[in-house]
Specification:
Helix content: 10-25%
CATH class: Alpha Beta
Strand order of the largest sheet: 3-2-1-4-5
Strand content: 15-25%
Number of strands: 5
Low-confidence stretches: 126-134
Number of domains: 1
CATH superfamily: Dinitrogenase iron-molybdenum cofactor biosynthesis domain
Distance between the termini: 34 Å
Oligomer: single chain
Length: 134
């Protein structure tokens, strides 16, 4: 089991909600599972990119040393970039706090994805924006 994970988050705390968007997430809570320490990796630079937000976010997560990403929706370019960096992707993690997502991961309740679950540009299958009001 990878000991450093990154969770897309709407804020810097374990009590913040998981951001369902990978590339345009507010940031990532990076958690060391051995020590319990966590830090926040701001993703603001990726949010303003017209294109390539997922690829930039993947590079940032790789630099943080994460071996696993927990998110709601990951597009094909971001998925490919994460896979190339040797980072496993766990998708469909939403409607819970970062701490809840970490606990689900630690308990083995989350499965590693074999492919992206969103279209390019952060669109969910079916055309809706990932994270958009439903």
């Amino acid at each position: 089991m990878t000991r450093i994970i990154a969770v897309t988050s709407e804020g810097p705390a374990l009590t913040d909600m998981v951001d369902p968007r990978f590339g345009r997430a507010a940031g990532f809570v990076v958690v060391n599972l051995d020590t319990g320490e966590h830090s926040f990796l701001d993703n603001g630079g990726s949010q303003v990119l017209a294109q390539g937000a997922g690829i930039q976010a993947a590079e940032n997560v790789a630099k943080a040393g994460a071996g696993v990403v927990l998110s709601g929706f990951v597009g094909p370019k971001a998925f490919t970039a994460l896979a190339a960096a040797g980072i496993a992707v766990i998708q469909d993690v939403e409607n819970m706090t970062v701490a809840q997502a970490v606990e689900k991961y630690k308990s083995g309740a989350l499965a590693v994805a074999e492919g992206p679950n969103a279209q390019s540009g952060g669109n969910k299958p079916g055309g809706g924006q990932a994270g958009a009001a439903r």
